[in-house]
Every structure is written in C-alpha cells, then in structure tokens.
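Why show two proteins at once? Because comparison is the fastest way to build intuition. When a single record is shown, students tend to memorize it. When two are placed side by side, the eye starts asking what differs. So, the first record is below.
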Amino acid sequence: MDTLRGRLLIATPAIDAGPFVRSVVFVLDHDDNGALGVIVNRPLPSDVDDVLPQWSDHVNAPVCLFDGGPVAEDSALAVGVLAADESVTVPPDGWRTMAGRVGLVDLDGPLPSAGQLVGLRLFAGYAGWGAGQVEAELEEGAWLALDAREGDLMSPQPEDLWHEVMRRQSGDLRYWATFPSDPSTN
C-alpha cells in the first residue's frame, strides 16, 4: 500500500462505538512501522487560553483544544500549516515536516512569527496504529482513505467535517453523508 501520509481516514458506519465514531483523521505519518494521525473533527470544551495561553493568539478558530485521539491524551500536539507565500522560506523553529506544508510545531519552542503559518491547531492526544493495523482496518471496511483538501485540517466548522467529506465524494459514497447517527431510529 502507498503511504497514507497527508490523507484522511474517514470512519465508516462500521465503527459504531468508541473514540473513532464518525471521526476524520488526518494522517501525519505512515510507514511499515504503523501510522500516526490526529482526529480533526472533535473540538473539546477546553479553551487554548486555559491550557496554553501563550498559543491562543496563534491557533485557528475555534480557539480550543481538539481531541486528537485515544493515545497519550494527557499530552498536547501542535499541528500547523505553513504559509504558501514564497516569501516565507523559513519554517518556525522546532518545525517538523509531516506531509506537504503540514507539520508539527514544538510547543516548548518559540512562538511562530507572523505569516509563517496559515493554520495551527492543538490536539490532546493522537491516533496511532501498529505495523499493518491500519491496513487491516481499511481492508475490513472500518475506514475510507480519501484525499484531503487544503481546508480540511483547519476547517472553521470541524464538527461538520465528516458530512462535508462524505458529501464531496462521488457515487454511492456520497450517500453516506445522510447515514443516520442511530440507524435504529430511521
């Protein structure tokens, strides 16, 4: 399988319990050893200002922490998108490129300078899979691996992202956007 890095994993209705129900995961890293990503459609009620106040002016709306996944939920991860402006040639100190213009920002390092990033989100925890695990779950039909669009990672309405991504698909996948949260009430 080609790398899933920079793509979205969209939970199918086969995942009907647990932390991944209707989740949209942006895959930050994927190789033979496994995969790592963050759930991008789960804003938490915690304001960034309450947890990491120095970063609150740098994150995109909504200015809150996001539930990045069930692994290491007591730690924070900063995911940023570099500006596409060619005059910005130097990424922030502590930058680690993950996929294209998306990367990790060291929360213990200096704050990014104005114009270096067009987006930044803070995640509590992350999603992780061991070697071959995500491939097996894709084969079982638990996930769809779909192309990410530029605005997906920093969507201003992240709670609508699962429906938006499904709606933009072609064929029968598009109809999944109307799949009820609880099929027994349909």
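Second record. Ask yourself what differs from the first in the token line.
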Amino acid sequence: MPTLEHEVLIELVRHRPSLVATLLAERGVTVPVFSNARLESCDTPDVTPTEYRTDSVVMLSHDEPVQAVVLEVQREYDARKKWSWPVYLATLRARVKIPCVLLVFCPDQAEARKCAQPIHMGHPGWTLHPIVLGPVDIPKITDIARAIAEPELTALSAIVHGAGEEGLKVLQVFHDSQEHLRHEQRSYADLVLALLPESVITKFRENAVAVLDEIKHPWVCGWIDYGKAMGEAEGEAKALLVILEQRQVPVSEETRDRILSCTDKTVLEAWITRAVAAHSTDELFD
C-alpha cells in the first residue's frame, strides 16, 4: 500500500511537472530545451496494466514533445524492478515515439545505490542504467529567492534534509518562503510536518528566528492542526509558548502552568491570536 513518504514526490510533481527536469539537472543529466511540462498517462497498455504501471510520467515539450520522463519512487530496493523498469521505457517509447528516461527517487542513500545497479538486458551492448536520486542528490535550499521560485523543490529539500546537520537552516528558509507562495503551495507545509520526526519539529520551534506576524502563518496553523489531529490541546499550548518565547515576552512559571493546563482549544486559539501582538502575558488574559 502506498505511504505518504512514497506519495509526497508524486504529489509535488503533480503540482509542478517540470520538477522532474530540475531533478534530472541536479543529477547532471542534460535535459532538452522545453517550454511546457505536463503529466502523461501512467498506464502501459501494451502489457498487463495492473502489473506495469509507473508512479508518474511527465512529457516535456517545445512546440512538440521532446522527451518523456518515467518517475519512480522506491523506499527500498525491489529486485523485481529490473524486469518492470525496462518495460516502462520500452512501451512508453513505442507509444509516444520520442526519447524516454527513467528517474528513480530513493529517500534512503543505501537503497539508492542498490537501485542504481545496471540492468543488463541480455542483448549485446544493451544495458539500462537507472538515473537514481538519493538524499545527497537533493539540494539543500538555503536561499530564500530560490525557495520562493521553486517551492516544490524546497519542500522536498525540507523533507530530505530537515533532520540533518543544516536542517534548521533549511527549515527556516522553507518557513520564510511560505508567505510569498500561492495558497495551494502553502499546503506543502502539511507534507513537511507529516514526514519530519516530531523531535525535529520541536527543535525547530525552539530555535526558529522568525517573528510570527499573524495567526494565519502556515507553520503555526500546521502546529495547531497537528495537535488537533492527535486529539490534544497540547499542540496549541506549545505553539503559544513558542510564539511568546520568540517575541521575547516574559512568561512566569505560573503563567506557563496556566497555559499548559488549559484544555479548551477555543480559549487557547484566542490566546495565540493575542500573542502575536502582545507585549506581556497579561494582555493574553484580558
């Protein structure tokens, strides 16, 4: 059964098909000049559809189609793919009659090395070398201009590198880019929050340098939604304490206890709304 970890890149490509071209370029693959990228049918009708169906197919065009990209997401190496991947390329190539390439993404570097093994077809000189992306091939997006220009790649970068050595910097840039994105692109924050370990999210909350300007900020909403999904008011309470901390509003032990012991989500959300402009905790409770 597909998991969120498996589906996230497929979802990002659905929003921006040209992301596959960016990923190929990151891997050092020359991509033909194109002006349009669109999703193509994932079925391979020349064979059994239930067995041979790609994760995603993107067609790159420049007045006319110039290249098709088969995208596969592999959480772990599957030896059966050495039989099905060549089928994807051959049947797609026969259907669209243009060059086709195979791009495989593995969130685990060790599994990526396994997936990159050459597939010897048996015919002399015919060997398929899968183009495989592991975590090391996904760029660490730490430039705000690039984050705004390439929100899908930035979300993938946050997911892949958020828990690493430069994780806080990557997450901070992802965070800062949100206010500049279209509404539908801000939903990528939900994917990032869902896939990062809770410990990483907590660490980011504690170290984030940005001042939160309004309750509608996607990350605050994400924290609150996460708490609601868990059936707890704890998410709202912790988000409130983080906002007060980042705004350098003094919080006494008595006030901290009052916030953490509150179980009324409506009250907590009202306090959060006031916290983004409050200069003292007294202003929360007035």
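One difference worth noting in the second protein: Confidence is low (pLDDT under 50) at residues 209-220.
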